[in-house]
Fold this protein.
Amino acid sequence: MTLLFNPLPPVLAPTSDGHEFPVRRLFCIGRNYAAHAREMGKDPDREPPFYFTKWAETVVPTGSTIAYPPLTQNYQFEAEMVVAIGKGGRNIPREAALEYVYGYATGLDMTRRDLQFEARDKGRPWSAGKNFEQASPLGLIHPVSEVGHLSSGSIRLTVNGEVRQDADLAELLWPVEDIIAHISQAYRLEAGDLIYTGTPAGVGAVASGDKITVSVAGLSDTRVTIGSPANA
Ligand code: MN
């Protein structure tokens, strides 16, 4: 038996201490900051956490220029803190959840907002709005041994140096341990999974040439430039 074509190599995310983290799956939390839920037209009042997924291959490293994607006139940034899962488990109790974290990173959940809203309002899946090439820029992963666990601290995003999102991780409606406990009831979490924990208020559109920086206190930045439209 021979392979019909070459399979994709694994997506490797660099860590701050010189290792490579093999990325398995991306889980993204929706409406995890109250002010952002409101700006999306929703009531955040203790809605249970919900998530959507993205392909591992949507991850691109900090420093990338990412193509302006097709089919959108409203391509938006979402600054997020990202949890890198270091070991697998199902039905993980909240009290043990942080033992499953390898480390933390900054990241972007780039979104074709017009397609997401069209799907949302028609009761369709969000995939076209969320899961497309280069949609998940990621900063260096910092191991817990270096930065500890992140439950508070500044999260902010600038476009061309202007502050557009500015919040604190303490505002997360569902903090990391709750998210891990909840997701692991639905799926067996595995080493290599990334959890994008949701974005604060202030999301907005970008254009080709814009430079985005995501900062979270204690972590290194994610920086991307919006390039020309994808054409290949
Ligand atoms: Mn998001």
Observations:
- The chain has a mean pLDDT of 96.
- The radius of gyration is 17 Å.
